[in-house]
Amino acid sequence: MLSDRHGTSSASQNKPFKGIGMNGWIAQWYARTRSNDMEDFRLRANAVKERLRPGSNLLEVAPGPGFFAIELAKLGDFKITGLDISPTFVEIGSDNASKAGVNIDFRLGNASATPFLDSSFDFVYCSAAFKNFSEPVQALNEMYRVLRPGGQALIEDLRRDASLDEINSYIRQSGRKWFDAWMTRWTFRHMLIKRAYSQADFQRMAQQSKFAACDVIPTGLGLEVHFLKPVQAATAAY
């Protein structure tokens, strides 16, 4: 890990340490514990829906178990693709979508080298995963590349200055059972906080990327980071 909660920012650098891989039992545990947050997924899906037109193409980067994508698919006629580096999550997400009766294209792939053509999507969404990307600026550039001119990207993630009291309050309110609560608290304290970014970090990374700028809004434990690809963007200039 290149920086800690109180250390020097490493937002402009790649992250050689990727943490524990979200595969196998770890991915299965994560899917189970995040099922406690379904109301939050529904709220986020409704918020994103307000930004979409009927028939919009949306890419979710690192969808994990697919809960957000599934809730969004229930709300309208959207074409939704999920791209995850974890084979286990691709399998879990596909299974969850099938059980929910919605059509979502879950694919295996890397956020820093997505398998999509230029200008393929109207909206790109990424939640609770960006802090773990080993090449954050390149991931932003890929989001820019696959967005159509005028398209938007939204990253929601933990903020680096979230306090342990705030984290404990979130876990209590989520209703997790004792093991999931303990595991979630341990993961926040020893992994997630240390990898999270500040508002200034996101603004710096945006400046280094093809987006060139972003709007950052603090929200509870996290940050909402909004990006826009200009309508006049020349998609051939990469």
Write structural notes for this entry.
- A seven-stranded mixed beta sheet has the order 3-2-1-4-5-7-6, sandwiched between helices.
- The longest helix has 18 residues.
- The chain starts with 23 loop residues before the first helix and ends in a 10-residue tail after the last strand.
- It has one domain: Vaccinia Virus protein VP39 (Rossmann fold).
- The radius of gyration is 17 Å and the shape is globular.
- With 238 residues, the chain is α/β, with parallel strands linked by helices.
- The chain contains eight helices and seven strands, in the order H-H-E-H-E-H-E-E-H-E-H-H-H-E-E.
- Helix 2 packs across helix 3.
- Helix content is 39%, strand content 20%.
Count of domains:
1
For the record, the CATH class is Alpha Beta
Helix content: 25-40%
Helices and strands, in order, run as HHEHEHEEHEHHHEE
Report the structural category.
alpha/beta
Strand order of the largest sheet: 3-2-1-4-5-7-6
Tell me the span between the first and last alpha carbons. Answer: 30 Å
Low-confidence stretches: 1-12
Tell me the Rg in angstroms. 17 Å
Secondary structure tally: strands: 7
What is the overall pLDDT average? 87
